[in-house]
Design goal:
Strand content: under 5%
Number of helices: 9
Distance between the termini: 45 Å
Number of strands: 0
Radius of gyration: 17 Å
Oligomer: single chain
Order of helices and strands: HHHHHHHHH
Shape: elongated
Largest sheet: none
């Protein structure tokens, strides 16, 4: 893998606007991070590289919600909370009826240990009557009292 990373680094340095190379790099990083091979320092370096590559991709494809979700989750993992919060705000503005931004905001507040923030997000979901998938219900249910979950 190390050689693949070096090769892609070199290619991207020489052709920074090549989207195919960018996609290839994102796939390689994702596969590497999911493999469990990376250890502490290397994991952090690769997660930061992954965040950077996702940001470059999003500049070219800003309408791709799955990429935004991946970027936010990655930024939360590397404790780039300010960036994650800005990205979530963008998602909430662009896809305000989609559960994604609200679920990401719950993860953000969980990571930053803000119970008040979590409660505000749950209240906003109720107030705006956001449709939740079964997965979304489970995630929100984790933060709610049992009797309140059925209201969603």
């Amino acid at each position: 893998d190390r050689l693949q990373f070096q090769e892609l680094d070199w290619k991207l340095e020489n052709d920074p606007d090549n989207e195919e190379l960018l996609d290839e790099y994102i796939v390689l990083l994702n596969r590497y991070l999911d493999s469990g091979i990376a250890e502490a320092n290397d994991m952090d370096i690769k997660l930061r590289a992954y965040s950077d590559m996702l940001e470059r991709k999003l500049k070219k494809a800003p309408d791709r919600l799955p990429l935004w979700k991946e970027k936010v989750n990655t930024d939360i993992r590397i404790r780039e909370y300010e960036a994650a919060e800005e990205e979530i705000q963008y998602i909430l503005e662009k896809w305000d009826k989609n559960e994604a931004g609200y679920l990401l905001m719950l993860r953000y507040y969980s990571a930053t240990q803000s119970r008040r923030g979590i409660d505000r997000v749950i209240e906003k979901i109720r107030r705006k009557n956001i449709h939740l998938t079964p997965q979304g219900r489970r995630e929100i249910g984790f933060w709610m009292k049992e009797e309140d979950v059925e209201e969603l």
